[in-house]
Amino acid sequence: MVKKVFLCILILFSIVSLSGCWNYRGLNDMTIVAGIAIDKNPDNNNYILTFEIVDLSGSSSSEGSIQSKLVEAEGKTYFDAARNAKRRMLNKLYFGNTQIVVVSNEIAKTDGLSTIVDWFLRDAEVRETVDIVISEQKTAKEILTTAEGNSPVVSYDIEKILNADNKATSSAIVVEIYNTFNTLKREGLSLTLPMFHCIINDEEKTSELNGSAVFKYDKMIGSLSPTESKYFLFVNDMVEGGILALSYNDNQPEDISLEISDNKTTKSYSYKDGKIKFTIETHTGVFIGEFNQDNHDLLKEDEITYITSRAQDKLKKEISDVIKKVQVQYGSDIFGFGNMIYKDNPKLWSQLKNDWDKTFKTLEVDVECKINIVNTAYVKKT
Amino acid sequence: MFKFILNKNKKKIINEKVQIINDSIKDIYLSNSIDKNIKTLKSLFKDVDILKIRYIKNNNNDNLNFCIAYCDGIVNASIINDNIIKPLMLTEIDIKTKNKIIDNLSDNFIQINQLEKVDTFQKIVEAITYGQTVLFVENSKEALILESKKFEIRSIAEPDSEKVLSGPREGFCETILINLSLVRRRIRTNDLKMKYCSIGKKTNTQVCICYMDSIVNKNILNELYRRLDTIDTDTILDANYINELIRDNPLSPFRTAGYTERPDVVVGKILEGRIAIFVDGTPVVLTVPYLFVENFQSNEDYYLSYYYSSFSRILRIVGFLLTITVPGLYISVVGFHHEMLPTPLLLSIAASRQDVPLPASLEIFLLLLVFDILKETGIRMPSNIGQALSIVGALVIGQAAVEAKLVAASMIIVVSITAITSLLVPKLRSPVIFARGLILLLSVSFGIFGMVWALSFIFIHMLSLHSFGVSQVMLPGKLQFQDIKDTFLRAPWYDMVLRPKGISKDKVRMKVNNINNGDK
After folding, report:
1. CA atoms B353, B355, B360, B364: torsion sign
2. pTM for the complete prediction?
3. Contact: A21, B337; criterion CB under 8 Å
């Protein structure tokens, strides 16, 4: 009996000492950080971290609501800056519900992302699913100082904009922090991150998603516009929605909108006589969303075939253009062509690896587009 | 330790005293003379004024002297007048066969349906206290016990604790004979056995063991008899006295015997191979063995559509799990694992916790205590002040406490969910309190980690529960499809071809050709 009691006490003690997170921390003893903006102080090369914190003090009265506040802190390193923030706050910062990290393009271009990603992955509190975005403005802080949207917390708005984007416009690639790390470490694949800038909308400064930033290794080297980003997503098979705009005749303005309902892209490559050729095939289902029907009758099969072929040509051209631009201007393999070879044929990859930056620039890419008009949403004149 | 030994000694001494008194009665035999017998009887019933004694002389033969003794108030006076006194006084009694006068009387003259010949005072005392009349005859060493019981009984009403929407509404009352008749009427076969025994050295309570001979598992029956034999108490006032004296796992808060006040429930259980224990003086009937799943079963399940009853079964099981885990889960999430909460939920909980003085862990203990106090008050208080209590409970503690920022609104919601779901499983009332407390205590100290410990402890304990050798919870590996047809879901009657596993000797309830006894 004594032995049993002793055993029970021993087990209970081991709960205390062996469990990872056993300390009680009340919800009112912490400052919830919604988003972080990372900038650099040009004077002394220190990092400036701006935390958007959720201010609950107004919410305890029945009609009050949640507000957000910005807290700035400076430090030699990122973590140093984060800890320095405590000097201005009652409670320690809590990163468990942080949704976005905004990095200024200056840091992305000069310092690189590796250290930031490493810090976030090492910290136990931060979720690995934090979205990381690049600020096109001068400082990252500006993105967080914009007018609030639906929720009073800008960071949460940005997170919602990002995650709903793919369904509606397909203009940016959402990269969570663990994926950023994976991409950085992967062979033959470069990173792209969504980019935000500020615009004046209805006399208020608002942040807007504006294409994606292109990286080589962990440093930013350029950007793609929202439209270019869409065709980039076509190559990477990540399109879930969006609009394809085209004109009926070559010299007309664009007057047809095709709404993308689904897309499937397959990439393949062939290796012959030391030359690599990539083939990209897209199969897209679209609805006709906008069409000038005064002169044309969509019930005729010819019309459908004509529109389909025009759309296919247009899509093929745009995709090829984006690939060309990235090849020539940036020379960064954001399409993961090298990674495909690495996965498929490691021996070949080990030969190509060292020269891949050069090879990529002159890579021959064949684009095949198949478009299927699923639905014409026929409107009849009476 | 010391005190414990003392108590044991004290108990022993009392037991010995009781034994001596019992033995002293046992040794007293009747004598030939009425006067002497009456004197003994009077000495036994000293200071018992409701004992009535009446001498009777036969009209035709002066030598024939009788005396009857009974307790006033529990006998039927007209039976005594018409069927005992009248024939003894008026008829011509032949006394040729003098030593057999007592047989002569019982065979030819006394008009009573039940009688018994006795020669010890112990039997006489038992009979008189149970409403029977004792007839002493001059020059006879035996007396006759004549049936003349008449008690005031409560009418057969629907029990308050087990109300149903549809189905039979009869409930047991406090008289064992009426209770047995309610069961007898429903099972019209000689296969239904009813065995009497009397338990309690002072109360001599009538206990009846009731079972179906062809279905019952004889090992369980013998074990029940063995355990009943070991009972050595002087008082049996309710079925729970017996339950606690014969139960398995005596320290566990979980039930190991079924309780019911409804004859239809008892009949259902008997026909599944269980044994019912009726106790005189209480409407509660025990049924053994008891499976854990019976905590979630209700008799109404079988009277309503099986879709509806399967749904309510699942509700009850979910309710049980919720009521034991919700407070612990809430505290673990709010105090330890903030990252488990989706952001909007975290914000609204955090907003409600703003400016609350107590930490969440202390708050939940206090609020649960308040709820238990309200519940207990609701049971104990007179029903006409119930309204005052509900006003105090709902307004003062609920609304005002939140507005005064003494407790967080989210905490009130958590406690209400706990409280409401705990009422879903009335049969698990006591285990729920302990399970919830244990989970809460460990959650407050170690978060989800502690909660998992507490849950493991509870489930291991549940798996070790037995009722008369039958394990209450069966591990999934041992289960057959037929065995779970009356557990989480209630299968339609045509599909429940087997009786519950492990209880009965004869498992087959109905013979259906295409079902291979369900064992395959």
Report:
1. negative
2. 0.77
3. yes
